[in-house]
Amino acid sequence: MTAVLTKKGEATRARIIQGSAATIREIGLANTGLDQIRARTGTSQSQLFHYFPEGKAELLLAVADYEATRILDDQRPLLDALTSWTAWEQWSERILETYEREGVHCGLSALTSQLGPNDPQVRAIIGRMYESWEAALAEGLRATQRAGEISPVVNPEIAAAALVVSIQGGIQLLAATGSARHLRAAVSTVIASLRT
Fold first, then answer.
1. Can you tell me the distance from the alpha carbon of 53 to that of 106, in angstroms, rounded to the nearest whole number?
2. What does the pLDDT look like over 144-153, one tens digit per residue?
């Protein structure tokens, strides 16, 4: 969207995106149509097409971008301050609490399983989110190495990728089983392995 919006217009557009994201998390993409979004956000059809002229496809891209940003923002400021084992424990507990609370309605599940992961534009959004996430974790690992709390032989980029995979895999099992047991086991095992 290239049009310059007023503050009120920006707020309306943000409300539509946030309401759409919440609806998709709750009832799934297949059950989410423009009627459900209009009811949830209190907007008319003309408003929807004013802010998203290309319709639902454009709106879903905005939702994907919103969810990707929210996933990282929910971890901050802890994600950007991983300099000690206390900080790592606080961050990992935040991750676990967030996904145990959100369960099958988490934004990461919505992103990876519902918002057309084969769509190149959605894939680019998800890819950027994972790259930012891994980069922040790798920087935290390097900072903890400099503090002498992680062995210098640990490769921060590989360890960061392993952490993200452990979280993603645990969330997929959480979505399938309703239990966060695998997520908690995966994250705690990867973090414990860094301490030894």
1. 28
2. 999 999 989 9
Read off the pLDDT of residues 61-86 as tens digits, 9 standing for 90 and up: 898 889 889 889 999 999 999 999 99
Residue 128's Cβ-side half-sphere holds a number of Cα atoms within 13 Å equal to: 11
On whether the CB atoms of residues 68 and 128 are closer than 8 A, the answer is: yes
Output the CA–CA distances (angstroms, integers) from residue 152 to 103, 149, 196, in the order listed.
36, 9, 12
**Residue 11, by phi and psi: left (phi above 0), alpha (psi -120 to 50) or beta?**
alpha
Domain annotation for the chain: domains and CATH numbers: 7-62 (1.10.10), 66-195 (1.10.357.10)
174: how many CB neighbours lie within 10 A of its CB?
23
Structure tokens at 103: 């369960």
Q: DSSP letter for 116, please.
A: -
Closest among 47, 49, 71, 68 to 58, alpha carbons compared: 49
Q: CA 175 to CA 168: how far, in whole Å?
A: 11
Residues 7, 125: Cα–Cα separation, whole Å: 25
Name the amino acid, one letter, at 86.
T
CA atoms of 183 and 92, how far apart (whole Å): 11
